[in-house]
Write a structure and sequence with these properties.
417 residues, single chain, 4-stranded mixed beta sheet, 9 strands
């Protein structure tokens, strides 16, 4: 007789649903979920979401490059559904370059590029440093050794910088931040929450009214900023309409605030959870540029985006029907071991780091240079001014925005000069 093995056969892991992000525990650490999806079914039909969920790096970049970004129904669609109150939101979103395909997208991007130039971003470096210093002066002046990173630094710095960029009053930055964060709920979540619709509609109305007033005022009296630059932008005789300027000022505001605020929160938390990496960055500040790129990869502020299949096609061995929804999970692609060596390790000196935190292709994030500049100067300022930064025992809570990953608060104990 031969001895029978007592080792149980390894069970095949079942594919989980991307909708598990609705569980706060999964949202706090989504990376095991991403790994499950990548390894079991990287192009997965999720019946709960009624969408394809794509998690591998190569497939995600294919979706970002080749699938349709025109995923916002026209205002008339919501009127036919009997919810005409949503139509103003759709009317705004269809004018944003974020939700356009060719030929509209290249036209809007060319005009925006004529206004949002590298030179306009480069001159903000001194202002970013000044704001960072002022915010930390206020923290240290309290003298209690406590800091809440989001409220004290990560929220106000990008908001103040973005008002400077746009050429609107800096004292309006908190209102603009509040409205932008509320509107971003519609951009980041795949599950509609009817209880929050009223707040989203109010925020959209406030943003539209604010920037319409600014455009009208700056047509009469130009200000050095992006609003006036959008007004004056011209390519081959083509100009923006007022409605297009308003829509793209809003997407500039929302994108600029969400990305950089969450870069600071997610990034500092990652460093605090890896004391060796924090010590290395303090000892070698010349690593800051590559460190910012690695923090963007490791804890991407933007975790997923949606697209529509432009036609019937195959992706990852699956047949996807024309206009079926596809969720490209950039947060998973940035942890794909087929693309990044040891992807779950925070490597601040990582060299081959073509992450997709800013998307890919024609819709690559328009504000990426500004986010990188703010990230570099902001982290440099934090580490220089605060020789001691420690987490408290308070539990951390992640925002209920499944696509735009960020903390509600990051309480710290600090000392500084």
């Amino acid at each position: 007789m031969t001895e029978q093995s007592t080792v149980a056969p390894e069970l095949e892991e079942e594919t989980r649903s991307y909708a598990e992000l609705l569980d706060p525990e999964v949202l706090a650490d989504p990376y095991p979920l991403y790994k499950n999806l990548r390894t079991t079914d990287p192009v997965h039909w999720d019946p709960f979401l009624h969408a394809w969920v794509v998690t591998g790096y190569d497939d995600v970049t294919t979706v970002l490059k080749r699938f349709s970004a025109r995923r916002t129904p026209p205002p008339e669609y919501f009127e036919l559904l009997g919810v005409p109150e949503v139509a103003p939101v759709a009317e705004l979103m269809v004018r944003m370059m974020l939700f356009m395909d060719s030929p509209e997208h290249p036209r809007v991007r060319r005009l925006a590029s004529a206004a949002f130039t590298p030179a306009r971003v480069a001159v903000l470096d001194q202002r970013i440093a000044e704001i960072g210093e002022q915010l930390l002066d206020q923290v240290l002046a309290r003298g209690d050794g406590h800091m809440e990173l989001m409220a004290d630094f990560a929220d106000p710095l990008p908001a103040m910088v973005t008002t400077d960029l746009l050429g609107v009053p800096v004292e309006d930055h908190m209102d603009l931040k509040r409205w932008s964060t509320t509107f971003a709920e519609m951009l980041g979540n795949f599950q509609h929450n009817p209880e929050r619709l009223g707040g989203v509609l109010e925020a959209v109305q406030n943003l539209i009214a604010y920037f319409t007033r600014e455009v009208e005022a700056q047509r009469e009296k130009p200000v050095d900023g992006l609003v006036s630059a959008y007004i004056q932008a011209e390519v081959d005789g083509d100009r923006f309409t007022t409605e297009e300027i308003v829509a793209n000022c809003i997407v500039t505001m929302v994108g600029g605030l969400e990305t950089t605020t969450n870069l600071f929160g997610n990034g500092l938390l990652a460093l605090l959870r890896d004391p060796e990496a924090m010590a290395r960055l303090r000892a070698h500040p010349e690593l800051m540029d590559s460190a910012v790129e690695e923090l963007l990869r490791f804890e991407s502020p933007s975790q997923h985006t949606a697209r529509l299949a432009p036609r019937d096609l195959e992706l990852g061995g699956k047949q996807i029907g024309k206009k079926q929804a596809v969720i490209a999970v950039m947060g998973s692609a940035n942890r794909d071991p087929q693309r990044f060596g040891d992807p779950d390790r925070l490597d601040l000196a990582r060299t081959d780091n073509r992450h997709v935190a800013f998307a890919w292709g024609a819709h690559f994030c328009f504000g990426a240079p500004l986010a990188r500049l703010e990230g570099r100067i902001g982290f440099e300022t934090l580490l220089r001014r605060l020789p001691t930064i420690e987490l408290t025992d308070e539990p951390l809570t992640w925002r209920e925005n499944l696509g735009l990953r960020g903390l509600t608060a990051l309480p710290l104990e600090v000392s500084g000069t």
